[in-house]
Structure formats: C-alpha cells, structure tokens
Structures
1.
Amino acid sequence: QSVLTQPPSVSAAPGQKVTISCSGSSSNIGNNYVSWYQQLPGTAPKLLIYDNDQRPSGIPDRFSGSKSGTSATLAITGLQTGDEADYYCGTWDGSLSDYVVFGGGTKLTVL
Amino acid sequence: QVQLVQSGAEVRKPGSSVKVSCQASGGTFRNYPINWVRQAPGQGLEWMGAIIPVFDTTNYNYAQKFQGRVTISTDESTNMAYMELSGLRSEDTAIYYCARESKVTTTFDYWGQGTLVTVSS
C-alpha cells in the first residue's frame, strides 16, 4: 500500500491528452515539492518533472506538472506511442521515518 | 553528463547478504545525498534509505522497514556508493537502484541502471 495514491492505469489515443493524478496528505504533498518519474519498459526511472512543475533540460513541453493542496497532476499532451511507460510521483514526508515516498505507479497505454 | 553505473546481477541464498555498488562517472558523489530505491518484480518503487553529507559529517536515513538490515556507504576516493542488505529473504528479490539527489532541490536527478538481486535457495 503506497503512501501516495495513483490510478493503476490510464489510456488514450495518439495525439490526445492524458492526466495522471497523485493524492497524498499535508505531511507529504501538502508541504513538499512533487517530482514525477517516467519508467520505460525494462529501464530505470527517469526524472520528468521536479518542484511540482519544472522540467529538466531535454524534457519536451508536452509534459507538465501541477500541484494543488495535497494532490498533484501530471499532464501529457500530443501523446506518442513512445510515451507508453509507468509513471511515478514522489515526494518527501515529514511524518514518517520513511522520508521519501512514492505513488504506486500508473501504467500509460497509448491505444 | 553524469552517469551512475551499478554492479551486475547477484544471486544469493536466504539469510545471506548482498552488497551492490554504484559508481559515478562524468560527475561526483561528493556532497550529494545518495539514495537507494528498490522495485520488486511487477511492483512499484520503494525507498530504502539515503546517505546525506552535511558539512563535515554524514547523516544516514533508513526506511523503518529496513532498519537494522541495510547499510549505505560511500567512498569518495573512488566515487563509489554502496548498499548492503543482510538477512536476505525471497521477498528481497528485486531490482535495486541508486539515485543521486539534487543539491538544488529535493528530487532524484540521476539514476543508476539497476541491479537485479535474486534470493533463492
């Protein structure tokens, strides 16, 4: 059972937009920055979004992040088949000894 | 460009220990927190712990689940980080990743390629 809650799966057609939610609490998302990681099949996670809505260099602006209260959202526009991957949200948690927490991951299928 | 290169796959028997290494190339571990995250087959990411340099000392933060079984260390002279897990059980079968934590903000900006540890009798 993950501390952060994500939908197990989402799907959309190529070219469409999809959003992935990440729900937490005041001890984690509510008071800390959220990051998003993309894990392509058989590879290591890769940083996609940091500080709620910032993209590292090299990440296309089709990927965007936002945060409101104790929830965060990753949006992907202009979906491509190469975006099929697992997406994880992560943040820090001030109430636990496990000071880094992740969502359970969301599998994106591009139909 | 920073790359984190981890040691190869390991097979261990239940009750034994494993030590996974992570070497930085194109950069350094000096003054960066290094975290370890694992992923069991078909499962999500699970944070294990971190080694955190603070001025002239080093802090350690381990997930409660792994307290007493995991040891994280670094060797700055060789740019290596290590994660040792003892008392292995079949549930520890997973891919283990090292991840460098950004100095500028709280995120994992570089990840190793992962090391598969299989625990089987």
2.
Amino acid sequence: ETGVTQTPRHLVMGMTNKKSLKCEQHLGHNAMYWYKQSAKKPLELMFVYNFKEQTENNSVPSRFSPECPNSSHLFLHLHTLQPEDSALYLCASSQAGPKTHEQYFGPGTRLTVT
Amino acid sequence: GNSVTQMEGPVTLSEEAFLTINCTYTATGYPSLFWYVQYPGEGLQLLLKATKADDKGSNKGFEATYRKETTSFHLEKGSVQVSDSAVYFCALSALGGGDMRFGAGTRLTVKP
C-alpha cells in the first residue's frame, strides 16, 4: 500500500449505530487530519494530530470522537449521528513542524446516515 | 485570519480551450500556496505548489504563479482535455500543520 488509505470507502449507518472510520498513511508523516466535505460547502477541518497529540478540534460535536494510536493510524469513531452528518470524510497527512508542508489525502469514506 | 477566495463555478469549456481559475488570498506572513484537484469519487490530489513570491508551480500542463503584489495564485492551462474535468481547490498554509485553508472549489467540465 502506498499513500493514504481509508476504510471503508462507503458506509451507511442508522442514527443509533456506532461505527469507526480508519485511515492509514504510508508516507512517514507525523501529522494527520480529518476533514468533512459536504455538498456545496467548503472543506471543513475537524481534527488535527501532530505526533499523536490532538492539537486542533474545530468545534466538532462530541458524537465524533477521534483516536490516533500512532503516527500512521487515525480513527474517527461515530455514534448517534444525525442525517446532516452525511458527507465525504477525508483523511490527510503531512510532515509536522513550523515549515509549511502540503497535505496528502486519502480517497475518503462516503458516509450516509439514515 | 488567513483565507482563500476562488472563482465560483461551474466552468464549462470545450476541449483544447484555455483555462483560467482565479484565486486570491489573505494571509499574514509568507504563506505557501497550493492547487489541489479532486476527480469524481476520489480524495484531493496535490496538483502544484509555490512556496515564495514569483515562484511558478507547474504540473501536467497546469501552471500558477505566486503573485505577492496582487495576492493571487491563478491556475492556468493552455489546452484542456476531457480528462481535466474535476473540482479544483486553491489552498494556502502559513504556519504548517493544521493551518491549511482551502477555497470553496471550482468545478470544471470539459466537453469534447
């Protein structure tokens, strides 16, 4: 595997379900990100992890819970979601540090909440 | 705060037409600038970047020049192909890490 991978690619869940999204990067990066992409809205940064430590949480509802067990893996745990949470969830990674670095994205998980 | 504004789409062109997608930015300091492309059903892919004023990023026939005086980073291609149909995002990063800011995206459709 190369680059950034995400599983599953598609997920349909009811509002009472609990599920998790997984992201893995094979680029040797030490920063990872979750983004939400909804139709007709700009890309929304949800969470940032640098060296496994969460450094940013952009007012994301508690029904989204991130986990970063190591610098290569990132999870997004989902529970009691709402229909408006249906979106494409993108994971990205980059080098961390004071210099600017481009981010590399996975293919995304298309989430539908019924 | 830092932000990016790009031209609203959608943009529809015929094959071999010239493409320009405008992008302007607001930032403190000296940001790096990026163009990303998103093909249907996929994530964002880095298309090109420029890290300082007057730099020109280029890739796959696309070009963009970092213009500090006009705070712009317009994307251009001399002759588009049907396979260029996608959504294009302008972005900037001034501090690294989670500071990347994306524009709203411009959908390009190229017709044969």
3.
Amino acid sequence: QQQVKQSPQSLIVQKGGISIINCAYENTAFDYFPWYQQFPGKGPALLIAIRPDVSEKKEGRFTISFNKSAKQFSLHIMDSQPGDSATYFCAAPAGNKLTFGGGTRVLVKP
Amino acid sequence: KAGVTQTPRYLIKTRGQQVTLSCSPISGHRSVSWYQQTPGQGLQFLFEYFSETQRNKGNFPGRFSGRQFSNSRSEMNVSTLELGDSALYLCASSFGTGYGYGYTFGSGTRLTVV
C-alpha cells in the first residue's frame, strides 16, 4: 500500500532552471513532511521539511509548497546546479517510521 | 561528531546463506531504524529499535530480524537469503523514538545475493 506517491520518476533540467517534484499522500495522520536528498553511494540526508500548518517553507534555493486540502506537497529547486544532481525523496512519518515516495532522479545539465 | 556507521559496506552472499549487518548510531542516539532500498520497491521500513526493544515492524517476512544492544548498536539478520534480498540496507539513528527527534541515515550496506 503506497501512501506517498511521487512524480516524476526522473527529470532533466538545465543549469539555472527550476526543478519541480510533486508528492501526494493519503494518510491525514501525517503531520510532518520531509524531503531527503541522496547521492550515489550515500544514505538519504534531510534536505528540508514542512509541517501542515504552513503553506510554504524556503531554505536557500529549496522551497516546499504544501496544499493540505489537496493532500499534496512539492519541492522546488530554484537556480538548479550540477551539484544538485541526485535522487530526491519525499517522505511522511508515522511515529518513527518514515513512509517514502518512490524517488525522483534529477539530472542538472551544465 | 561521528555519523551513523554501517558495516560492512559491501557483501556478497549465496542463496540460502544468512547474513548479519551492523549499525552503530550517533553517540547519544537510542533509536535505530532499518530500511531496505531497491530500485523496484524504493525505501521500505524494516523495523525500529529503541532501548533494546523493537518498537515498530514493517511488512517483511520473519527471515528478517534484528536486535539492539545496551550501547544502542544494532544488528540486522537475514536468514535463508533469496535473490530478491539483494538491496541497499540503510539504518538511521535518532535520539528518541518519534520523528521529531531527528533522523540520520548511514551510507548503507550493499548486499548482493547470488
């Protein structure tokens, strides 16, 4: 049972462009929505997170937008850089168990 | 401050064998969670241990088991290995149980079953 659906599976963006990744969730008990970034050979690392009482959170070039009524949240990577090339996962925790989206492989072309 | 340490980094086993993976959490962290990562299924929760007790378990067969020691180090065991068990096994540590305490992943153990 997939409780967090992520799209697209992959995307290619030019340097300086905007990367947008979307996630939809089903379980309204989720109360915290983190995004993780994973480089090859490494474990996922927390990138940015949002609580459902906030509609947007920005940290540097990374912004989360949250739509509680639609049960959707998205990650925007502004001014994408080649170093941003990685796999991104949205997630939602229930207790200490994280339910992850399927992941989006982002390739930023120079 | 040292991160989460997983050993070994790579492992090749034969079908039918068993394997034990180790995870040393960040100093002071008492919770260790394990995840399986595969291209097809993504990241799947295996189980969580806190203060030597299993607090939560994912939907995996009984061949997958774990334990936690008094120093919070954790081991994960897979018995009677199958080809489909080939995956990256990740552990994550946190200070307490409950996501609000923070969650740090190790670099994983890459298990290949042949």
